[in-house]
Write a structure and sequence with these properties.
The chain folds into 2 domains: 131 residues, GAF domain (Beta-Lactamase), CATH 3.30.450.40; 99 residues. The protein has a 6-stranded antiparallel sheet. The chain contains 7 helices and 6 strands, in the order ααβββαβαββααα. With 251 residues, the chain is an alpha+beta fold. Helix 5 runs antiparallel to helix 6, helix 5 packs parallel to helix 7 and helix 6 packs antiparallel against helix 7. Strand 1 and strand 2 form a beta hairpin. The termini are far apart.
């Protein structure tokens, strides 16, 4: 399925608008000792940098592209499985692989970013010219939590857009009655405000735990955020029905 340049630009912008991404990349580099970390948008034909931290002058900035066939992310897109390489020279699978030879790295880690509908968005990855200790529960857990967190934020963006569209449609339907419109806005605001407040609180606490490098707390908060996002999605889907029941014309 072909993705337009406009859609790709919007996907990159969505990642750029997630305030926690720079912190995630900083934590990845600090925890792994690697010099380059990035979020990449990967399609059937393209590999594009959405955001990167580059301490080794690898040369990629937002919008930079690599030929897809030269990347390991191309294989991850097909399998939806993470790839972890501590030392290319000691890896039976990758010591002759074209990608490390082309880009000159010895350690590599990349986890798929899967949207909540199962769609593959891209990868959270890191590389370095020196070997690194990556294939252990701590690092795997860190990347799993961070990839899930990015997926959550992308879903939250979609939910907020859907909410805005739903509110706009319902507002137009009720515009002929001032009293109905007033009741609708009151109901919709109070229905959605509390779950949004909780999501904002959990996101703030998550950023604090990441700054402290408290991975266990970060994982727990990521689970709470995911659960809250699912509830918020359900509320948005049910909102038109709730409004139609509670907001009725005055006889």
């Amino acid at each position: 399925m072909s993705i337009s340049n406009t859609d790709l630009a919007q996907d990159i912008q969505r990642i750029q608008q997630i305030p926690i991404i720079p912190t995630l990349l900083d934590v990845i580099c600090a925890t792994t000792g690697m010099g380059f970390a990035a979020v990449a948008r990967v399609t059937d034909t393209r590999w594009i940098t959405c955001m990167a931290r580059d301490d080794i002058q690898f040369g990629l900035v937002t919008g930079s592209e690599l030929p897809l066939v030269t990347t390991i992310c191309n294989e991850i897109k097909a399998s939806h499985e993470a790839v972890i390489i501590d030392n290319v020279k000691e890896s039976q699978q990758f010591y002759r692989h074209h990608t490390p030879a082309l880009y000159g790295f010895q350690s590599y880690i990349s986890f798929p970013i899967l949207l909540k509908n199962g769609e593959f968005f891209g990868t959270l990855c890191a590389i370095d010219p020196s070997p690194a200790d990556l294939n252990n529960p701590k690092i795997r857990g860190l990347f799993t939590a961070f990839a899930d967190l990015i997926s959550f934020h992308l879903q939250q963006t979609d939910l907020l857009e859907q909410s805005s569209q739903s509110l706009s449609i319902l507002s137009q339907q009720l515009i002929t009655s001032h009293d109905e419109n007033r009741q609708y806005h009151h109901l919709s605001y109070h229905t959605l405000q509390e779950p949004l407040r909780k999501l904002s609180l959990f996101s703030s606490l998550l950023m604090q735990s990441l700054e402290r490098k408290d991975l266990e707390e970060a994982k727990a908060l990521a689970i709470k955020i995911d659960s809250g996002a699912q509830r918020f999605s359900s509320l948005i889907k049910d909102l038109p029905e709730v409004v139609s029941i509670k907001v009725k014309p005055q006889n």
